[in-house]
């Protein structure tokens, strides 16, 4: 797996997609290296979880700096567990970056080709997705929970990039960030039924001795969507890290019973020098 880990025991830890930094800068965060206190310790980037706003602002500032940007460059979707995707322009700079600036409403994905803007999505078990079209210098970030996954937000991201930037799937690389995995993600028929309808039985394992309970792989669904859309399998990268297995290092809504912070996926086209 072409994954670059950076950081130290006392500071932030990042998983960085293996893209040339002069072309695009991107990262997935862990919970280490911030200023928030328990239960949000310490690099929480979510304002909506009950953390102190000043701590979240400082944490976001550190995350922005990790990809060469500033807090004011960030653009954040509202994340409503849907499939909406917004095209981000210079006029959107800073939307959702601080509490008094609303995020892009009613969407879970954002795309842009504007250098200097930093696209950010949050997660604490859901799958953060980062997209890069090298041929057309366009990027995207999406939040894919189970509803967004069965709604095919991964394919919707590619469709919007194609409509807006003439992106071709064969030119796109996609990274799936730390998220809950099949080992820990138990669901019932309410979730399993739409998964089967959209993806068949491959993403689901029936739980022995627990009728109506299944272990779900969101990553299997997303990868199938991307391949069906035309993204070569060699250009789909899964970080392979389970949030629920490692709540000491990653925020997990399920493992921590809802009282936790948020990780991020962040991507930015560097500004021209």
TrEMBL record:
Keywords: Hydrolase, Metal-binding, Transferase, Zinc. It comes from the Bacteria. It catalyses: adenosine + H2O + H(+) = inosine + NH4(+); S-methyl-5'-thioadenosine + phosphate = 5-(methylsulfanyl)-alpha-D-ribose 1-phosphate + adenine; inosine + phosphate = alpha-D-ribose 1-phosphate + hypoxanthine; adenosine + phosphate = alpha-D-ribose 1-phosphate + adenine. It holds the Pfam family Cu-oxidase_4. Signal peptide: none annotated. Its cofactor is Zn(2+). Purine nucleoside enzyme that catalyzes the phosphorolysis of adenosine and inosine nucleosides, yielding D-ribose 1-phosphate and the respective free bases, adenine and hypoxanthine. Also catalyzes the phosphorolysis of S-methyl-5'-thioadenosine into adenine and S-methyl-5-thio-alpha-D-ribose 1-phosphate. Also has adenosine deaminase activity. Belongs to the purine nucleoside phosphorylase YfiH/LACC1 family. This is Purine nucleoside phosphorylase. It comes from Alicyclobacillus cycloheptanicus.
């Amino acid at each position: 797996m072409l994954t670059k880990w950076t950081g130290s025991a006392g500071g932030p830890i990042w998983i960085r997609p293996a893209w040339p930094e002069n072309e695009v800068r991107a990262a997935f965060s862990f919970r280490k290296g911030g200023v928030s206190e328990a239960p949000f310790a310490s690099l929480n980037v979510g304002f909506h979880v009950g953390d102190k706003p000043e701590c979240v602002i400082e944490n976001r500032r550190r995350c922005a700096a990790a990809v060469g940007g500033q807090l004011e460059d960030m653009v954040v979707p509202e994340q409503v567990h849907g499939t909406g995707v917004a095209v981000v322009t210079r006029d959107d700079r800073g939307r959702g970056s601080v509490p008094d600036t609303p995020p892009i409403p009613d969407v879970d994905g954002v795309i842009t080709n504007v250098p200097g803007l930093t696209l950010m999505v949050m997660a604490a078990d859901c799958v953060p997705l980062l997209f890069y079209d090298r041929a057309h210098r366009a990027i995207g970030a999406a939040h894919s929970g189970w509803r967004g996954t069965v709604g095919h937000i991964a394919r919707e991201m590619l469709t919007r990039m194609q409509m807006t930037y003439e992106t071709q799937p064969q030119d796109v690389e996609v990274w799936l960030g730390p998220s809950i995995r099949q080992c820990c993600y138990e669901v019932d028929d309410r979730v399993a039924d739409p998964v089967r309808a959209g993806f068949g039985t491959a993403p689901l394992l029936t739980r022995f001795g627990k009728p109506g309970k299944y272990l779900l792989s969101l990553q299997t669904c997303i990868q199938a969507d991307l391949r069906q859309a035309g993204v070569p399998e060699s250009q789909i990268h899964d970080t392979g890290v389970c949030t629920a297995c490692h709540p000491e290092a990653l925020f997990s809504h399920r493992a921590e019973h809802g009282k936790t912070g948020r990780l991020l996926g962040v991507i930015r086209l560097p500004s021209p020098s």
